[in-house]
Amino acid sequence: MKQDKQDRRSQRTRHLITTATLELLFEKRYETITVQDILDRAGIGRSTFYTHYFDKEDVLTSITEEMLEMLSQQFSQRNRGQGIVPSLELFEHVQQHAQYFQAMLRGHTGEVLWEAAQTALSKTIEQRLSTIYAETPSPAIPWTLIAQYLAGAFLTLLRWWLKAEMPYTPEHMEKTFQQLALPGIWGIVEEKRASP
Fold first, then answer.
1. What Cα–Cα distance (Å) separates residue 17 from each residue in 85, 107, 118, 132?
2. C-alpha 6: how far from chain center
3. Which of 41, 117, 118, 124 is nearest to 82 (CA)?
4. Containing H/E element for 167?
5. What's the rounded Cα separation, in Å, for the pair 134 and 129?
6. What's the pLDDT tens digit per position in 87-106?
7. What DSSP state is assigned to residue 164?
8. Share of the chain above pLDDT 90, in %
9. Given a cut of 60, is residue 192 above it in pLDDT?
10. pLDDT tens digits, one per residue of 52-72
């Protein structure tokens, strides 16, 4: 992303560009969207666009970063007793913004979104595991690998849920994820605790 300009006019322009891009993503695949499509939808000139972004990939990166930052803020405000994976919050958030996420699942945008989500979620999970089990000896499988596994399992389930048009409630999906993914993790942790 180009230099961060925080004045109101710059923020307004960036908002016009990201909104136009999102609207276009609801209508067609990312690969078919051109910078000219974004310009026409946003009602701005080419030089204005290039003052704020390098290309349409830069806009997509910006949108993804904003979404992940918003999720990160939600996670940091959550109750500490709610477990290591913020699964219910994620299912609820995705349900509230289903149209956006379904548009983002298609083609290249899906790859960018899910890769960024995997990175952010695994980092959140690893930090949570390290905090919860700070006094416990490290398990045979490093926290980093456990976090990658949990993030991948969660995101695979989330993606399926979205593609299937959310046939179950967020609460049901959260409970399912907890039942499928976490018993093995607890087994690893408890096994390490029981070791002399």
1. 33, 20, 26, 41
2. 24
3. 124
4. none
5. 8
6. 888 899 889 988 888 887 77
7. T
8. 42
9. no
10. 999 999 998 898 888 778 777
Q: Residue 133 burial (CB < 10 Å; 0-12/13-18/19+)?
A: middle
CB 61 within 8 A of CB 99: no
3-state SS, 62-117, equals HHHHHHHHHHHHHHHCCCCCCCCCCHHHHHHHHHHCHHHHHHHHCHHHHHHHHHHH
Residues 16 and 40: their CA atoms lie apart, in Å, by 11
What's the one-letter identity of residue 56? K
- Does the pLDDT at position 81 exceed 70? no
HSE of 26, CA atoms in CB hemisphere, 13 A:
10
- Full-prediction pTM beyond 0.85? no
CB-hemisphere CA count at 13 Å for 111? 6
Full 3-state SS string of 29-72: CHHHCCHHHHHHHHCCCHHHHHHHCCCHHHHHHHHHHHHHHHHH
Find out whether 162 and 105 touch, Cβ atoms under 8 Å.
yes
DSSP state of 3: -
Non-local CB neighbours of 190 within 8 Å, separated by 6+ positions: none
The amino acid at residue 185 is I
Q: Are 64 and 103 in contact (CB under 8 A)?
A: no
Write out the H or E segment, with its range, that includes residue 161: helix 143-163
